[in-house]
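Thread title: Can someone regenerate the structure for this chain?

I was given the following input by a collaborator and told the matching structure tokens would be attached. They weren't. Posting the sequence so someone can regenerate them.
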Amino acid sequence: MPVNRTTMHVVLICISLSLSSWARLGDAREFDGVSLEPSLESLVFEGSELHPSLRSHRIELLRDLPDGLEFPANPHVSADEAFVHATARGGSQGRLDGAGMVEALYARYTDGESEIGFYGLQAGTAVEADQREAALREIWAHNAALDRTYVYRRGPLLLVVWLWTDGPLPESWVAVRSKVAQIMGSPWDVRKPVLRQPPASDEYVINPDGESPEWSLKDDRQVLSEDPFEAF
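Best answer:
Regenerated them for you:
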């Protein structure tokens, strides 16, 4: 039997309410136990805060810095245009500049044998953050597969955490990632489902060859739930 426009309106309202509830639950999970408004400053740590074996690298001993990267302290957060540009270049293996980024973080830690570093960026808009995230995940995909680099995203913040070592993975590597995840969440690329717009009530009919349903409106405007159920 065909289901007319009134039935479809009832169904679409139910779907809308269900999706709204699902979205609210998703938001609650996303922000559960994590700062609602993280900032690059919240990612500034001394080495010992990340793991007992780590220390913040002395600036004068740092090598292989990205071109043009200058800073007075390690770690360092700044909105200086040159600093943002140099950090963006370093955090993308030289492929991207600081366009669309408004602030940057650079940090280097060592245990005497291994090196762990942060490239942090704050995007100016959600669109720029989305584009930068996609690009960074592609750039660092190989290193991520080797468990040497992870890309984190939380709102406008993007963070590349990398490891260099000649030997096995140090214990500090797990500790650093755990500490970062408390603020930034999972480093995995979680893609939100893209929902299609449901068709209008006059765009399709269920069982078009059936008879039209019959029911009586309560108070001349409400359809009892039993009637659509019987119609379906």
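The chain has two domains: 1-34+190-210, 37-184.
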